[in-house]
Specification:
By secondary structure, the chain is an alpha+beta fold. The chain is 47% helix and 16% strand. The chain is built from 10 helices and 7 strands. A 7-stranded mixed sheet has the order 1-4-5-6-7-2-3.
Length: 290
């Protein structure tokens, strides 16, 4: 579908609106559809009657996302296995202006849609509470409370001692080498005792049906995987930053593309997020990262 032609002063907002919709929905495909719909609705308005076009577009996108979240949550209740947001690949573009990582995206899933919207619009996208109130259709005081409650929920998902990009890549490289060569002692040295692992296959490809909790469970699973890697080596496509977390993209047995992101705190891996559902990886331009 061709991109609708918006007012010449508004196309620069599209990346920001897509980021907002993606943060709300956890799906890049759905985010792009929402923003497409928002621009079509903008084109149908009387522009002479709109004092703040950018505010109106943010309002349209937010309300479309709130509507979409109702059906999205029903779909996720029937989802096979752990649900993870679609991984977004950071190819070194300029800073997006927010620090939302995959771990925080998962924390946002535990919020109500209104809490999620208030937190994102105010804390992440810098809108004042009057604008937030207009966007979500609530009083400004209520929006403050919504954002405050959300802030408390997502606080625990922020690392206490985050690593630099370079440190993260070194740990990702060490994790890839140890996990693919069956080096369980090397792997143990990289993992926190309370590490958790999540694999999202969506019922489309094989994946662990339940999260793994604790270093022993994670090591046991990787010992099993190491035997599989010995028969069919894992092909590294590239190391990458995935939703703000260090990780890598691989091609596994049967040609399954896989994205692995590592949440690191105090120099140890505290969570492993593996996305295997092919529907969530189609937006990754693997041809440009070979």
């Amino acid at each position: 579908m061709n991109e609708p032609q918006a007012d010449p002063g508004l196309p620069h907002l599209r990346p920001r609106l897509i980021r907002l919709a993606y943060r709300m929905l956890g799906s890049m495909a759905e985010a792009e559809d929402v923003v497409q719909d928002a621009y079509l609705r903008w084109l149908a308005t009387d522009h002479d009657q709109v004092r703040q076009p950018a505010a109106l577009l943010h309002t349209i996108v937010t309300r479309l996302c709130l509507n979409e979240l109702k059906s999205a949550r029903r779909r996720r209740q029937a989802y096979v296995g752990p649900w993870l947001p679609e991984p977004v690949l950071d190819l070194g573009e300029p800073e997006t202006g927010d620090d939302i990582t995959l771990a925080l995206m998962i924390a946002l899933e535990r919020l109500s849609p209104l809490e999620r919207a208030a937190f994102l619009l105010h804390d992440v996208f810098g809108m004042d509470f009057e604008a937030v109130a207009q966007a979500i259709g609530r009083e400004s005081a209520a929006c403050r409370k919504l954002a405050s409650r959300a802030r408390g929920h997502v606080h625990a998902a922020r690392p206490r001692f985050p690593v630099t990009r370079e440190q993260g890549q070194k740990i990702a490289e060490a994790f890839f080498a140890a996990s693919r060569h069956g080096d369980m002692e090397g792997l143990r040295a990289l993992l926190a005792d309370d590490v958790a692992a999540f694999a999202d296959g969506g019922g489309k490809v094989p994946a662990s049906p339940h999260p793994l909790a604790g270093i022993d469970a994670v090591l046991e699973r990787h010992a099993q995987l190491a035997r599989e890697f010995a028969r069919t080596p894992s092909v590294l496509v590239r190391y990458a930053i995935l939703d703000g977390l260090p990780g890598f993209i691989t091609v596994e047995a049967d040609g399954i593309v896989q994205a692995t992101a590592l949440q690191i705190d105090e120099g140890r891996i505290v969570a492993i997020y593996v996305t295997r559902n092919p529907d969530k990886l189609r937006h990754l331009d693997l041809g440009s990262v070979q």
